[in-house]
Request: fold
Amino acid sequence: MLYVVVTALMVTLLGRLWFLQVTTGPDYARAATESRVRTVALPPVRGEILDVHGEPLVANQTKPQVSVDYMALIHQPDGGRAVLTRLAQALGRPYQEIADRARLCARDVPRPCWPGSPYQPIVVADDVSARTALSIAERQEEFPGVSTALRPVRTYPLGTAGAHLLGYLQPPSPDDPPGGPELVGRDGLEAEYDRELAGRSGVREVAVDSTGTVTGLLREQAAEPGDSLVTSIDARIQRVAEKALAGAVASARRRGEPADAGAAVVLEARTGRVAALADYPTYDPGVWTGGISQRDYESLPLVSSAVLGQWAPGSTWKVTSTAAAAKAGYKLGATYDCPGSYKVGGRAFHNFDGIALGRMNMRRALVVSCDTIFYRFADRMWRRDGGLKPVRHPKDPMQAMARQFGFGVRTGIDLPNEAAGRVPDRAWKKATWERGRTDTCRRAKTGYPDVPDRKRAAYLKRLAAENCRDGGVWWAGDAANFAIGQGDVLVTPLQLARGYAALANGGRVISPRVAKAVVRPDGSVARTITPPVVGHVDVSAKTLRYIRDSLAGVPRTGTAAAAFKGFPFKRLSVAGKTGTAEAYGRQDTSWFASFAPAGHPKYVVVVVVSQGGMGASTAAPAARKIWEGIYHLSPKKKHAAHTKHTKHRKHTKHTKHKPAGGAR
Reply:
């Protein structure tokens, strides 16, 4: 019996041996050969991002990097733990830090982790010394699956300035096309011009022995460096804008305002090129180099306030309403009464503190920011369109003019993820109401038992009942709020800057651009980038000139006079408009939109501080500092008087009634 068992085992073993050697032998031989050839991707040098004068905004610095081969590690008996332990000791880092960076990202795996392909080298340390990198390279037998190389690393000479504008790099995710570069642009210019900046990876095939030691070079194809991007950003002006914006936020907070976000935009009025784009809060884009923890990632302020932030524009909006009034036949030079309040649909809409300012023309109305004149214009235009029973095709002249200035649509700037703002009208309100009607009507019946404040819960229930019944109606109060940039109007700082550029340049609406040219490594220009004209404001040149001349009085004698006290207007005539926009459940949004020189505008400067208080107190002083910085004007010490609330500045704040559906 034992003989039979032994014979059967021998036959089985011989059969298996024959199968392995004869049938599948060639496959194993080929696999053995392939396992001794390693293909190494040679990353290209990514193109630089330069300012308008050639100063680097994003540059490269060659540093030693240590990478691991994920597939080689997991096929080791202990999954590579021993190798990573020795590597951590050699680098002087905690084991867990290296192990975390060497693992693959997944839903249940927090950062840091590797979001790219497991077949790509995973960088676990990119700030090592040359001596450490050389020591690891010379002890390859101790570090199978580990490699060292000199590689370019992104550096940011401006630090935190322009972080959102410039963007950042990350390893490719599984959603990215295979065979691409080791790093791809994820935001800002890095993402928008990723193809031009990235270059083309090279390939190196090397022969290795069974221990992974390189024994020879088989083939090498050099990497092709990426093109550089020349922008219209002026690094000096960018620094000025960043400093002024941060100062405005700090000043507002000292006065007790939350001041949680903000932006400053500097546009070339006649070309649409962006000279500066500052965001608050910002961050150091160098944080992406070498990996980032989940906690740090979640704390990063990655949303750009300049292109994604949306707020009601307040009185800065009155330039479009003035143009609409002129287009509708109202004489700008005629005089109109500016009472303390104006009844719209049976409810009183007020100037700030109900102050009556007497009779005035539209120049004066813009300088002192009279609301009630605009309420009257809006009410009458609303009635012309049929009021509560609108004509078949209402003209909505104020909405039409706002759209001509470029509001309500994305500007088309060469940056990703731009917000569109909002120009509300009858159709928008009805559609919005229909989408939420079911929930609104349910709340009208059930109320708000989840709201602990009984008075507030009762108010919300009454509001829901009113909106359930006729929340889709465009009331006269909606029109009045629209005229002064309140209600449901939303703009981004970039949109407002573009709108003021159209006012300043004679009516051309331009799609802004940050990039000016793509330049090859040899210095030749691959292509130039020109901001396109995408629209035109259909009002007379005389009307636009009237509005521009009116705004020149705002910093001298109007709502921004205190903020610009002592400003050298003889050297630079600045025109602008303050705005203080109310936001439900939040503090006021502070705005100042401006251009200069007033007679022949070159730049537009817009500043916004969310929950920053009054426009004249926060945004206007910041804009002043930007103008002083652009034109090298020495500020006078006593212009700090803007922190006091003057009578004129109070007119920029709008105490309004906005009941459900607006006033009737």
Notes: Residues 2-23 form the longest helix (22 residues). The mean pLDDT is 89. The chain is about 35% helix and 20% strand. Residues 235-311+493-512+532-650 form a domain with the Beta-lactamase fold (CATH 3.40.710.10).
